[in-house]
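All the exercises in this workshop are built on plain-text protein records. There is nothing in a record beyond a sequence line and a structure line. A learned vocabulary of local backbone shapes supplies the integers on the structure line. The question running through the whole workshop is how a given chain folds. Here is such a record, shown just as it appears in the course material:

***
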Amino acid sequence: MTSKRINRDEVVRAALALLDAGGVEAVALRGVARELGVHLNSVSLQVGTKARLLDLMADAILGELVLDDLPADPFERVKEILRRYRRVLLAHRDGAHLVSGTRVFEVNTLRLGEAVISGLTAMRVDPLLAVRTFWGLSYFVVGLVHEEQAVLDEGGKRFENELAPTEFPALTAVRGPLLEDPFDARLEFGLDALLHRAQHQDE
């Protein structure tokens, strides 16, 4: 270990490297210190606690979200933002798991909220409904990616084996779509459902 000077960005980048290599469970202040070749105190000085480090990591992931060249139509603009949000989460192992475990109000997270709320406002959505739609979209995308990143072949087979027709006739009847519906299609369905609800708020 050395006493070299490090900054917060270096700590967050090292933590993200641990995340991508071993998932959320691999992220620890001591592990980051080893990754950087410094003493634990040097890392703690930059981020304080593990909880704070996870917040900063979540915001750093959101910092990878590109908001350039978006569609002019606000409905399509919001959809494209959420598509890109999904891709950013998928770019990191356990990305959705990490983000779902934090409640961050850092600049990059606020930038996402600003972009989505701006689009909803341009659609003339009522302020309260715009906020609820934003939360709904956020929860939906994070939850979808969380499942997408957790899906294993064995899990699908185990689920299918448990579908005994006599006990779960409704699930058995839709077994094909239930097991094979792609995540891209689920994303588009959910975005359309939430945004159409906001768009037709007076109906």
Remarks:
- The mean pLDDT is 91.
